[in-house]
Amino acid sequence: MKVCVFGATGSTGRHAVRLALEGGQEVVAVCRRPEALDVVHERLEKRRGDVLDAVSVTEAVAGCDAVLSALGMRSGERDRLVYSEGMRHILAAMATHGVRRLIAVTAAGLDPSPDYQLPWIFRAIIEPLFLKPVFADMRRMEALVREADIDWTLVRPPGLVSGKPRGRWQVRAGVGVPGSAQIDRSDLAGFMVQELSEGAWIRQGVAVAW
Asked: Which of 179, 178, 183 is CA-nearest to residue 157?
């Protein structure tokens, strides 16, 4: 399988590239700065591209069998429609090239249900004051994906940490994993790569946490 990874130089995307290669996949890593991806492998192709540039997205997806999206925003980019416009370009490219499988990261806090496992301070203060435009754009992205006639999986992690992988995780359809509000980025990427092969959660939004 040949996998196109968007957000390949981000904290989760790097792990997704590495784990997909370790799993025997061919990988096309799409980066604004390919030199920033410090991975070298015979089955890795680094492509310069930007999800807000439809042409580069279409070129990157050509010849691939699936897409992993680990898109993220850098500091100061909160007003850019990276998630929704980027996903619009990804979906158009997938339609052009007949690619049906998509796994995309969003966030646990998108769901309004009180059942999701995020601290009250996040829901009451952090999200409204600091993440409102980001989450609004993520919701637009989710809507685009759910309406697409493809085999999609939306992955909604809670708090992300780095450097503490456990090599295991819990998965629950919908809003949250009871009693857990964290997952390491490597484990999140591990679920994405596993789901790429297993296809256990097609056309579902799932919470993934420890």
From this structure: 183
pTM for the model stands at: 0.90
When pLDDT is averaged across residues 74-82 and rounded to a whole number, the result is: 63
User: 2-209: what fold?
Assistant: Rossmann fold (3.40.50)
Tens digit of each residue's pLDDT (9 = 90 or more) over 153-195: 999 998 899 998 999 999 988 766 666 789 999 999 999 999 9
DSSP state of 45: E
Q: What is the average pLDDT score of the chain? A: 88
CB 22 within 8 A of CB 51: no
- Residue extents of the structural domains in the chain: 2-209
Note whether 158 and 118 are within 8 A (CB).
yes
Helices (H), the chain: 11-22, 54-61, 82-97, 120-121, 132-147, 185-198
Beta strands 204-209 and 170-173: pairing type? antiparallel
Enumerate the β-bridge partners of residue 183: 160
